Amino acid sequence: MGTPCHYALFDLQPAFRLDLDKLAVRYRELAREVHPDRFADASEREQRVALEKSAALNEAYQTLRSPPRRARYLLAISGQEVPQEVTVHDPEFLLQQMQLREELEDLQDEADLDGVAQFKRRLKAAQQTLDDTFASCWDDPAEREQAERLMRRMQFLDKLAQEVRQLEERLDD
């Protein structure tokens, strides 16, 4: 038995644009139905199945609520070969990555909380633009290669955003 498509679990059609509030509500409904506690008195097999369903539901939810993971998943289920390692054949973006990393290192060295907050706002805006561009690309099968390039950029910015959050926590302490 294959695992069901993440979208099918939530009764959704595969698409990049999702209503995340609706997704969260549906996730909570489904999570209650398959929560292992509801199967405490059930057979061992039923308990195992509930645990597996719960894990699959969590994985699907985490994937669909994250734009880079959702983009990667869409490319994968569309039959696009998406290699694990992130190689970006995109000199302009590589240069931008290096500049962003250097800027973040400077902010860290200076322990500049205001600067980090501004950096975070700019990063969020860049992520939103990238998400919108991917969404437009995704709707056009002729743009699949561009969609893959954008997904890689999304993954990079997502990783950078995690580093920014960690830096904020360190500077707050």
Automatic annotation (TrEMBL):
Domain J, by residue range, is 5-77
Pfam families the UniProt entry points to: DnaJ, HSCB_C
Is Transmembrane among the key words of this record? no
Keyword Chaperone listed: yes
InterPro entries noted in UniProt? DnaJ_domain, HscB, HscB_C_sf, HscB_oligo_C, J_dom_sf
Q: Which keywords has UniProt assigned to this entry?
A: Chaperone
User: Which Gene Ontology BP annotations are present?
Assistant: [2Fe-2S] cluster assembly; protein complex oligomerization; protein folding
UniProt GO molecular function:
ATPase activator activity; protein-folding chaperone binding
Can you tell which superkingdom this protein's organism belongs to?
Bacteria
Please give the GO cellular component terms listed in this UniProt entry: iron-sulfur cluster transfer complex
Under the heading PROSITE patterns, the entry gives: DNAJ_2
**To which protein family does this belong?**
Belongs to the HscB family.
Complex and partners: Interacts with HscA and stimulates its ATPase activity.
Q: What's the protein name?
A: Co-chaperone protein HscB homolog
Query: Which species does the entry assign this protein to?
Result: Pseudomonas cremoricolorata
- List the top taxonomic levels of the source: Bacteria, Pseudomonadati, Pseudomonadota, Gammaproteobacteria, Pseudomonadales
